[in-house]
Structure formats: C-alpha cells, structure tokens
Amino acid sequence: MGDIRKYQGIIPAFYACYDDKGEVDGERVEMLARYMVEKGVKGVYVGGSSGECIYQTVEDRKRTLEHVMRVAKDKLTVIAHVACNNTAESRELAAHAQSLGVDAIAAIPPIYFHLPEYAIAEYWNDISDAAPDTDFIIYNIPQLAGVALTMPLFKEMKKNPRVIAVKNSSMPTQDIQMFKAEGGEGFVVLNGPDEQLVSGLAIGADGGIGGTYGVMPELYLKIKELMDAGKVDEAQKIQYAANEIIYAMCACHGNLYAVIKEILRIREGLDIGSVRKPLPALVPGDMEQVKKCADMVDKAMELFAGGQ
User: Fold this and answer.
1) Which member of 7, 15, 45, 139 is catalytic?
2) For this structure, is 167 an active site residue?
3) Residues 164-189: pLDDT tens digits?
4) In the prediction, which pLDDT does 1 show?
C-alpha cells in the first residue's frame, strides 16, 4: 500500500509513560516522543510489549497513541500495536489508530487459548478490516504468544493486500530469510530480538523493532549504518556491547522496562514513571546495578557513537 522505505530502519518500541499514581501521563508520552524524534530514529512502535499493552485498558492505549501522534505525525513512522485478547477491542483500537493517521497497525495472535490457524487468520483479517486504509504488520513472537507464524498461516495472510510486513521476534534468524523469500519483492521483515540485530540484518531484515532501542538508540542506529556499509566486524563489536548492557539490565530484581526507565531518567533527564503491576518495580537494592548499566551505556556511546 504505502512506501515500504518508511519501515526500513531502526524503530524503537515505545515505553509506557505513567504519572506518579501509575496512570497514563500524556505529557510524559509527548516528552518521550520528542526524545525519539531528536534521536533520529526511523519510527516508533507504540502499544507493544514495551508499552505494557497487556496491562493497559483500551482507553489507556488510545490516550497513549493520541499523544504520540501529536508529536510524531509526519516526523516518524508510527506503527500502532492494536491486539487485545478479543476481536472487538482489537478492531476498536485499529479503527482509532487509522483515524489518527498512523502508518501501520500490528498485532500478535490471540494468546492463552491455542486457536487453529484459520481462526488466527480470521482474527488478524478482522482487525485489518477495521482499518482498511492502513498497512498491517504481523507480529511473530512465539516464545510469548505461545503460537508461531507458520508458513501456511503466512501464505494465507499474504492474500490480504494490506499485509506488508512481519515483525519477527522468533529466535531462529533463518525465519527472517523464510518470510523474506515467501513475502516477495516489496515485503518487509523487521528483526525483533535486540540481541541479534546484526545477524537479522545480515540474513535480510529491513530494519528492527526493539525494546531496548529507546535507551541506547545511537548504538542501534550505528549498527544499521555499519551493516548497510558492509562493515560487519565493526557492527558486531557494537552488538556485543549492547548485549552486555542488556544482560546487565536483566540482572535486576525490577523488570527490564523499570530499569530502562530509570536509566533514561539518569542519562537523559526523562522521567516517564515506573511500570504497571504485576510487572515488578525497582527496589532500592537495584540502584547500584542500574547505575552500572547507565555507566555501561555512557562508555559504549563514547566508544562507538562519538559520545552522543
């Protein structure tokens, strides 16, 4: 449908932004959106795992997207993840996203019940039909959704002309090659696992969507730049550094996104709140490790991104 070049690049997954009472804070959403614009990323992926979507109401998700679009429209590619665990609310979010002028909507498959593939296809197509003028991106994350995008299901979804991309978060990087080959010319596949962006790009991904991109976008932008230039060895060194940071962030008691939000507060002066229960917030014992992570980001920036 649209220009696929707008999906080819580094697209951070947008973080949930809360006030001190744990409610969605529109002002903080806009602050984070401005930060993303200033960092020079290709786009933002709103309302996904990093946006804590499964712990938010439909109104929370609408409000977040509205405030993102106030800042990012015509400046960034905006992909709105609209899946809920029922079709009606997913369609409501899809229609709302289209009304705001997003570039694409995306959806995981329904979770909990293991549905047959024809029911998953119907779910995705029902969502897409609610936003008939908007591109649709399949989100394949079998390790969390409990169901994988198989080739027969992919071929069925390709009958929908709005399906222009797969966000592939499965761990085998060869899945990217399979979807690229089957998708054909003009079809986009985006790398999901942050830890393997280099390998995803090497095997044919057009770019990436990632949950840690937002806390260190310069590093991922540099990886994409180097891979585009064929400088794999240099890109690999940055990937190793990013992965060390990710492993260090995951060593805290608090949830990864709680850690990321605190690092943004320390390094960028961005206060976007904590995380929503049942995700665990930071505890005082985490702070030493969080500061260590922030220092690791600083050092990686100096080494690989010119101290940006």
Assistant:
1) 139
2) yes
3) 999 999 999 999 999 999 999 999 99
4) 54
